[in-house]
Amino acid sequence: MRNEYYMKEYYHFNGDYNVIFNLIEVNTESMIATVAVNNLGKLTQETVELRGVNDNPYFEYGIMNDKIYIDEFEIVGGDAV
Question: pTM (2 decimals)?
């Protein structure tokens, strides 16, 4: 079964430029997510700790620890399966 969050996308403006996140996997039982991060054209994969309650989990990103909520990720373009 495909992960319901797989490749959903989120654009985050960090004050200087946009950072694009794509969800690869979200595990709400262990409160861990795997995220692809496109930051100034550099693509990295990060495993982040989810915080908050299971109904609205988030992770923190950047030096300001901005909250990135999982529920704000969206399917962008193309044919979603």
Answer: 0.83
Q: Burial code of 25-61, b = ≥16 C-beta within 10 A, e = fewer?
A: ebeeeeeebbbebebeeeeeeeebebeeeeeebbbeb
Q: Which amino acid appears at position 26 of this protein? A: V
DSSP at 74: B
pLDDT tens track, the chain, 81 positions: 346 777 899 999 988 999 999 999 999 889 999 999 999 999 999 999 999 876 789 999 998 999 999 999 998 865 554
